[in-house]
Amino acid sequence: MVDLTQSERVKVSLFLPNQLSRESRTKISHFLRDCSPHLIQIPENEGEFNCYSDQVLLSSELPDVFSVDAAFLPLLVKNGLIAPLSDVIKEDLSQFIPNYQPFQFALESCRVQSELYGIPNLIQTNVVLQKESPSEFSSELDLAQHKGYDSIVYPDVASSDALHIVKNYALLQGSITSTTTTTTTTGGGGSGEKGDVVVPTCTISLNAFPEKPEHADEHFVTSYRTILNATQIEAAEDLVESCRYGKCIPCGAYIGRLELMCGLKSKIEDEKWNLTLLPFLGKGSTKIAPTVSCIVLNSQLQGQRRQEALKYIQRFFSDTHVDEVLQRGMVIPCDRNRLNQWASNSNIYRDVLFCLEKHERENNLSVLRFDPELTNVEIQRIAKILRHRLHHLAIATLRCLTADMVENAKSGHPGCPIGLSPVAYVLWKYFYRSTCKNPAWFNRDRFILSNGHGCALQYALLHLTGYESMPMEELKRLRKIDSKTPGHPEWRHTEGIEATTGPLGQGVCNSVGMALAEAHLAARFNKEDLKLFNHYVFTFCSDGDMMEGMCNEGLSFAGHQKLNKLIMFYDDNKITIDGSTTLAFTQDTATVARGFGWHVIEVVDADSNLLAIKNAIKAAQLVTQKPSLIICKTSIGYATKHEGSAKAHGSALGADSVNYLKQLCGFDTQQTFFIPTQVREDFKKIADRNAQLYEQWNEVAHNYSQKYPSEWETIMRMSRQELDGDIEPLLPNFEKEEQEGKELATRMTSHIVLNSIIRVMPGLVGGSADLTPSNLTDIEGGLDFQPQQRHGRYIRFGVREHGMVAISNGILYHGLLRSYVGTFLNFASYALGALRLSALAHIPNIYVLTHDSIGLGEDGPTHQPIEVIPVLRAIPNLVVIRPADGRETSGAYLFAAKSKAIPTCLILTRQNVPQIRNTDIHKTLKGAYLLESSSQNPDIILIATGSEVQIIVKASKMLKEEHGLQVNTVSMPSWELFEMQPREYKDQIFIQGVPVLSVEASSPQGWIGKYSHFALGMTTFGASGAYQDIYKKVGITPENTVDKALKLISKFKKSAPPLLYASVLDE
């Protein structure tokens, strides 16, 4: 090391608050001197502890090296010179300004930074306390609280430090090539020089990722940056002017003279500007500096003195703790005119301007400029967009990308994806665990987009996190035929989509079912030493979801069940298709949710307050006895010309509005579907983290499989939807009941079959909508699923039919469990939306629908379904089975249990029915089959379903014995299963030219022309009375069947027109 004389030693000065005691300052200074005793000379003049003007910086009196204290904090804490929130420091400040209220700002700011950035809970030593009057400061406190901020921090940093920050960064990244006054450094991939002043070529920029700087590489520093501002404000008038040029408060300026703010209180309140602080990143760190952190070098230094100063800087930077808080960027004024004015009077800003022009030109940077003629409304919008770090290149990318997707499709819903981008980014970056390495990983977190119209956001996230089925080309095919990006998310159609959503409220209840599945599986299979199931369910929902009745059903059920792994984000943007929610929806949702038993957290500014979003999720994960609702106050179509308007909801924004968004985000308006490299790298690290978590879980799973092989095999079988053994020997054949002439309602035979087969269906859970004694859906000897009894398999859904079916869908979406649910057939109409989606999504739900006709009797027409069966039959990919007796019930369950992609409706009677001769379990799977065949060429075919099969059996006997006719009798439990049979089989059931009469105590809709020539059924509502009397009243009897059969035979003989059970085009 060079032995320097006292005069050659480098002078170092620190920027510290004047309120700190001299003793505290001396401790810090002596520590630095002890770090490099051969370099540092302790300055005597306390004035050197303050910031410097351009004139001083260019004078010979400037210390050789000095620092904003934030860069020193980790080093000083590490060596014990600053204690975290110690009483000494508190007293040090409070004795100077007794009862100083804004001091609480400093404490709160430290707490916030500690939680978000992981920085030690320190008082910021550059919180400037220049005023002694509590009244002036408290007015700012009132202002901050009025604006929704918890704290204000005023770092008094001179803007003239800016170039030195950049130069210093260049020194760090490059190498010193000369010891002369002309020093060339390299940084950001280039080099440059200008006279005796170091001119670095690294980009002057605001860092776009405030959370983890390892997401920013050298390319990040040199490209795609929007340059924002921070200025030293000289006068109140200058501050106002600065705001009008978009240079100060909208971006979170560094206000050097605190007293100016008090005088501007009314101005700021009137124009609704907001105050924030822009933190900066450290080189290669996992932390963030709480304020601007920098070491600066006197550009007048020459020779050996300059080299020693550089050595000191390099020594300082070599400390790993300091390295964690070094910045990668800087901020400067955006306004070109103001910058030119400063450049004419300052070599520093001359070089800033030189660097700006050079890098804008070389890197084709998009630099945000503001029109000085902006109206107040536009200023307010820009202020809102830029406050609290529009830093977020990732969020800006999501907003612009989703806007491009909808614009390219010429239809869609851009407002929701744009508004929810910050919430989605924070969730994905810090909390959401799922991996494209294995999208079916059953301990992944589940993400449900209940407001499915915002699917462009989910597709963009899938693309960014590496799902091979979601290349950029698919984003460009949004809403196109056969694309992987349909207009609403579809399960199994698009990899990474957890549920088919879109009709509002469905996803809310689906997520309840998923959370229920997680709780049940954790209770059944987790061990003290090995936890296989410990994931969360995250759900986005909207104002529209909250208006839906089923949403309240789901929220109520989840609250009762205390499903704490369910965290729901309510996009409270106050806009519906018709306009403001004030038109129709003014409930206090927070109070409603609390009443349902939810933990409620409100994020006042979810447009930009990422810390609040992150803290809300962290707080929700700490709740153990309640699900959590995070109410996110967002702006639909944020930063577009349609922000806050219904126009942003359901149609493309238009090129002008999209370009406006891109301009504010600093994106090239000529580029579409643009994803900066650093954003891709950011999401790649998210994907890599999740892949690593998956591998760690695989180790746990392997250990589990070795230690608990039986349980592991059960889990594996459930994941493959396999039965635990042969189901067929377990199916009752009800021969004894037939022999004894015992009649049983098919709801009772359903109960018998269900309890027989559950032993080979370890993943089967289910329940009823408060109709257990009527539906007979209970499991004998089984336990209820309740908060204190998570391993129970029977679910008491309460009177929540629609919610129940959607929750059951969610259980199935989860992937390991099977589910069945029960209610009256008539109430399937309540649940039709969710039931339909189960068919669309190909999830094999089992619907136990009892009290299927006028046979329920005395409850009357309000409860007697007439139109429901035809409605269910009209739904594609839904199998409706109406068994005639116990054996057909066994056949129905055989199909339902083995189905992996088709939901099944079991249509069951309340009234007892006989066990009919020749019914068959396996023939039930054919959909229709001959019970009795009199001839290859019968006079008539009688066909019926369910409880009416006994009627046609009696009618057939009467036709044979009393009229000498040849009759074929057909049981047709399922249209859908029959349609799956080959044409040859169908022709054996429906013989060419033979008239067919169908009987079903339901609407005849669909029978005539397809499966019969005449349908005896219900063309009116039913009645209240004994079911036998109602059957007689409506004419569904053996006698009337005989009468209609004779008329049909008389009309057609054996020349009945062909039925259309198969397409005429098949012939």
From TrEMBL:
EC annotation from Swiss-Prot or TrEMBL: 2.2.1.1
Residue sites binding substrate per the record: H413, H649, R747, S774, H851, D859, H863, R910
Keyword Oxidoreductase set for record: no
InterPro entries registered for this protein in UniProt: THDP-binding, Thiaminase_I-like_N, Transketo_C/PFOR_II, Transketolase-like_C_2, Transketolase-like_Pyr-bd, Transketolase_bac-like, Transketolase_BS, Transketolase_CS
Domain of life of the source: Eukaryota
SUPFAM superfamilies noted in UniProt: Periplasmic binding protein-like II, Thiamin diphosphate-binding fold (THDP-binding), TK C-terminal domain-like
Xref: Pfam families: Thiaminase_I-like_N, Transket_pyr, Transketolase_C_1, Transketolase_N
Active site feature: E801
Binding site for Mg(2+): D543, N573, I575
Cellular component GO terms, alphabetical: cytosol
PROSITE patterns attached to this UniProt entry: TRANSKETOLASE_1, TRANSKETOLASE_2
Known catalytic reactions: D-sedoheptulose 7-phosphate + D-glyceraldehyde 3-phosphate = aldehydo-D-ribose 5-phosphate + D-xylulose 5-phosphate
GO BP term, example: pentose-phosphate shunt
Cofactor: how and how many bound: Binds 1 Mg(2+) ion per subunit. Can also utilize other divalent metal cations, such as Ca(2+), Mn(2+) and Co(2+).
Cofactor(s), names only, from the UniProt record: Co(2+); Mg(2+); thiamine diphosphate
The keyword Transferase is assigned to this record: yes
Keywords, sorted A to Z: Magnesium, Metal-binding, Thiamine pyrophosphate, Transferase
GO molecular function: metal ion binding; transketolase activity
Residues the record marks as site: Important for catalytic activity: H413, H649
Residue intervals of the Transketolase-like pyrimidine-binding domain: 744-915
Subunit relationships: Homodimer.
PANTHER family linked: TRANSKETOLASE, TRANSKETOLASE 1-RELATED
Family to which this protein belongs: Belongs to the transketolase family.
Descriptive protein name: transketolase
Organism, scientific name: Naegleria fowleri (Brain eating amoeba)
Lineage, opening ranks: Eukaryota, Discoba, Heterolobosea, Tetramitia, Eutetramitia
